[in-house]
User: Fold this.
Amino acid sequence: MTLTQFIRLNNLKAADAVELVCPQAGFPKHYAVYLGTRNGFPEFIANISDGIQILTREKLSEFVKRYQVTNVERFNGNCKIRGK
Assistant:
């Protein structure tokens, strides 16, 4: 699945938080926030092994392949507050 498909499938908009699990590894849940698209590329921020950071393309590809979305916490502000 591509990142664009992932975003469309989960109907993500900027500031939505995504809850993810890796079924094969049995790790606890991970969370990422969709920041929107910059320079034609989707951006997410997450707290991963190196701390809170914008995920690289490689990390995003890994997330899409390995993790399943268990919940999407929709940002409940308006478009002006959301920033998009």
The longest helix spans residues 57-66. Strands lie at 17-21, 30-38, 41-48, 51-54, 68-73.
